[in-house]
Design brief:
The chain has about 270 residues and is mostly beta strands. About 0% of the residues lie in helices and about 40% in strands. Strand 7 and strand 8 form a beta hairpin.
């Protein structure tokens, strides 16, 4: 199935949390404490997830931008992510990668036991890419020979970034059954993510992911926020299964100030215009 991604932007545990990335605020060596995720988990399998979107800069009050992620849980249990971020620094136990001035392609792979597989020795990989605000950007997560390829391409600047990782014999990206994520927080679907220094009860600027294939029959809509490090407690999470009997009718979902909606062809995170 081929999916296209249309992006208009916004600011972005326990058993519900999706595995996140540990970040540091701009100009700080301290660790951010809260991770808000607005997500859609598909309830069917796909061999490829391909998206197009319009990139836009946006930034939270802490100086950290937002991440837009395509996520694929393989039928062998591994989890793959490809996305686009703006001003998204990385904090490790030993160092802080400085905040970059523009957009980055981001990649991550997790093993079936929940641990990062450290692409090129990093978790995640963050690569600067020539993307200007308003550019049309293509994201792809798909199978290629014995690997899974994660690909980002800017149609305006013609800049590309790509990496591949072992598929471990997998053939498809699969749903998680009767819950939005599996026990590791993995899922197949879309996620808009933002980190904050403090507990955040609020919405995000609107982002729309659009599907151009045959449409999604049903999906889990969910919103959560949790304390990092990731073995800490969840502040909140809520989820609901949406069945798209009317392909065009949007199903709305809200939790603690955050809003999202979806139908068979679209997923919209956030309702704010600024």
């Amino acid at each position: 199935m081929r999916i296209s991604w249309l992006l208009f932007l916004l600011p972005t545990a326990s058993i519900m949390q999706s595995t996140g990335w540990t970040l540091a605020p701009s100009g700080s060596s301290g660790q951010t404490l809260y991770d808000e995720q607005l997500a859609l988990s598909f309830a069917q399998s796909f061999h490829e997830l391909s998206f197009n979107g319009t990139a836009a800069e946006q930034c939270g009050t802490e100086g950290i931008g937002i991440g837009y992620l395509v996520n694929g849980l393989s039928d062998m249990g591994n989890w793959y992510q490809v996305g686009l971020s703006w001003r998204w620094p990385i904090l490790t136990k030993s160092s802080v990668y400085p905040t970059l001035s523009g957009f980055d392609a981001i990649y991550e792979v997790f093993s079936s036991n929940g641990s990062s597989l450290h692409i090129d020795g990093r978790r995640p990989m963050l690569r600067s890419i020539s993307v200007n605000p308003g550019d049309f950007v293509f994201l792809r997560l798909g199978f290629s020979s014995s690997n899974i390829t994660m690909y980002v391409h800017d149609w305006n600047t013609n800049a590309s970034s790509q990496t591949s990782y072992d598929a471990f014999g997998a053939r498809d990206f699969v749903p998680t059954g009767n819950y939005p994520t599996n026990h590791n927080g993995f899922f197949t679907g879309l996620m808009t993510e933002q980190y904050h220094n403090g507990l955040y009860y609020g919405d995000e600027r609107q982002a729309t992911y659009s599907e151009s294939g045959f449409g999604v029959s049903s999906a889990w809509m969910w919103i959560d926020e949790f304390h990092v490090p990731y073995n800490q407690y969840t502040e909140f999470y809520q989820y609901s299964l949406a069945n798209y009997t009317n392909n065009a009718r949007l199903v709305n979902f809200t939790s603690t100030g955050a809003f999202e909606s979806s139908n068979a062809h679209e997923f919209i995170t956030g309702g704010s215009t600024s």
